[in-house]
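Translate sequence into structure tokens.
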Amino acid sequence: MRDTPGVLICGHGSRDPRAVEEFATLARHLTERLPDRHVSYGYLEFARPVLREGLDTLRRQGVRDVLAIPGMLFAAGHAKNDIPSVLNGYQAETGLAIRYGRELGIDTRMLRAARDRIEAALAAAGTGVSRHDTCLVVVGRGASDPDANANVAKVTRLLWEGMGFGWAQTAYSGVTFPLVGPALDAVSGLGFRRVIVFPYFLFTGVLVERIYHHADEAATRYPDIEIIKAGYLGHHPQVIDTMLERISEIVDGTGNMNCQMCKYREQMIGFEDEVGLTQESHHHHVEGIGTAHDHHHGHGHDHGHGHGHSHHHHPYPHADHPLGPRSMKEDG
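Result follows.
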């Protein structure tokens, strides 16, 4: 096994211990499916082990070649810049060979997992309302990368057409728009008897709870509309299968990052100045912060970016949009 490549699953990390445990559970499921490999995992921030510690574990086990995959739905800044920056730095320091794969992305297996979560919610709600009288609202994480945001919209469209809903709307939990509340207000006027809110997220956490809260508030505002909440993806077997496929792609030499619409490599409308930006993780100063092992940092870090660090974020073209969240505004 010494010469067999190890596997590193790269996560973002969360302040919510439930999300951290769910990611660890996914890693355990993957380990069970790869009995001939050493498997480890790590996070960018907020949780232990951080990525470097996950790599340290593999090195102690005698691994000299690592297949690293981002445990993330879509490729935005974390998968395109932050994780590669950490992996490249570690490889340069230690000589460990690291091959990096692509995110889960748009995949028929992921769509089947999403379908199952939506179908389960519909079954629990009962059959009194037809699909044609139901509006699907798919909620993505939201990013300052239009490529990742567009992928959420594509998932929405594929589920909409594949499952036969009367209408569908894409919303985002933050960073971009439409946000969940305004999206639910918008679809409430379309005349549908039922709205199903589906967080297209891997794990629970503050953002998923916030999405459900918005759904509950909308149910109070619009008592004539049945608003139901679907579960997030979690460690659905199809998610595990997709991750195994991403590992196989690295081995087979077919696992390419989605660079076709990447704002760091192509001049996307509104993001032209971001081509060729230095690949640098902005998480290096918060690795492990907020965990039980953190005893000396008194500050927090979140994606509202209201902290005092000096790392630079390129201006987001829609930061001044009236429907945009405060998290991307200069005074936010």
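Note: The longest strand covers residues 134-140.
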